[in-house]
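Practice problem: Membrane protein DedA, SNARE-associated domain
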Amino acid sequence: MFEAIQEVLVAIWHQDFNALLTPGSATLIYILVAILISLESGFLPAAPLPCDSIVVLVGTLSAVGVLDPFLAFPMLIIAASMGSWLAFSQGRWLNRLPLVQSWLAKVPEKQMRTVDALLCRHGLVALFIARFVPGVRSVLPMMMGMRVHEAPRFHYFAWLSATMWVFLLSGLGYLLPSLPEPISRLVTMGLMAAPVITLCIAILTAVTWRIRKALQGNLKPSA
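Answer key — structure tokens:
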């Protein structure tokens, strides 16, 4: 049993499509994929897990009949939403720690009100975009747990963004077998590279914003 789990887990990690076509592996694929999606969505140390490509892979396996799309797609949505809830709960717990509260106390009140307004006003868009950025996928729900006090509102955003994310990526995966092989290969390469590209863009944006803030701070005294 352990060897079968290890083989399926390695096949999922390496996107070994042929190995996942083995009869009887569907149940293990359901279980392992649900665990991986939940962990990556809920815990920052699990950010390196290739969950975007795994969701695409599930769509492809559903298209060729290995998995049942009416079971696989809802399972992905539940796993992603539960992972976001775990991250949100971590934020709630961290917000009770005196150390974290002391950090937040150093942030100007005006900036905190701006953050709260943005999270409440653009929560759905933010969660949807965060789904495509490794690391941010778990950090943003954690931040919302620290700042958003309406749990039902968060769950609405989390479930809706998870549904959009799953149907977009797994839907593309479902279409891949019907595409010509050169196009299918290009689309697959693009989907695998997308998380890295979005992560680089997010880091570059954060660094640029930090530099601009530092430059503005240096210019104010001289003005």
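Discussion: The chain has one domain: 1-218. Students who identified this feature from the tokens alone can consider the problem solved.
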